[in-house]
Amino acid sequence: MTRDYRPTLGSDDSTTRRTFLATAGATGVAALAGCNTSSGATNDVAATGSPGSQTTVKLAVSSGDGELIDRLLKQHVESETGVKTETTVLPNANLYERITTMFNSQNATFDIVAMDDPWMPELARHLAPIRDHIDDLPTDQLIDQTLNIGTWPTPGEAVPPNAMDKEPELKALCAVGNSHIFVVNERLYSEVGEDLPQTWEDVHRAGRKISEQIDGSHGYAMRGQSGNPITSSYFSVGMSIAGNMFDENWRYDWADQSGVDAARFFLDDLKAISPSGVAAFDNSQVLSGLADGSVAAGLQWPSGTSLLLNEDKASEYENITFVPVPEGDQRAAPVQGNWLLGINRYTSSEKQSAAADVLRSFVSKEAQEQYVDLGGVPFRHDTFENNMDQQPWFDALYGSLQNAKPRPRTPLWSELEVAQGKQLNAALVDQTDVEAAMTTAQSNIESILDENGYYD
Question: Which helix (H) or strand (E) holds 435?
Answer without folding.
Answer: helix 434-451
